[in-house]
Design goal:
The protein is an all-alpha fold and 98 residues long. It has 4 helices and no strands. The chain is 78% helix and 0% strand.
Length: 98
């Protein structure tokens, strides 16, 4: 990934993650979906022998988002599967650094 595309992915993650976390308090269904995705991500990470610490979560999130963008995903304001996954991992990251 080029430095420019890496920066775009970082900005995308921050914008989608922050906006989604802000909407969770107003949208119980979103909060439930984010919780389910967060649990699934923790399971994937621990099944691979890692712990869901900041560095591992960042690697997962950047890889996931980059792959989603390469497949043609772009956030549209809807809470599609990819958007909810980004919000969930962003939320896990916030917990990991808190």
């Amino acid at each position: 990934m080029s430095e420019a595309s890496s920066e775009i992915v970082r900005q995308l993650i921050t914008e989608v993650g922050d906006a989604g976390i802000g909407k969770m308090s107003q949208t119980p269904g979103l909060a439930a979906a984010v919780d389910q995705h967060a649990a699934a991500v923790r399971d994937v990470i621990t099944a691979s022998g890692d712990e869901p610490v900041s560095e591992v979560l960042l690697d997962y999130l950047h890889g996931f988002t980059d792959a989603a963008v390469e497949r043609g995903w772009w956030p549209t304001g809807d809470f599609d599967w990819e958007t909810v996954r980004v919000i969930a991992v962003h939320s896990l990251l916030r917990e990991a650094v808190a």
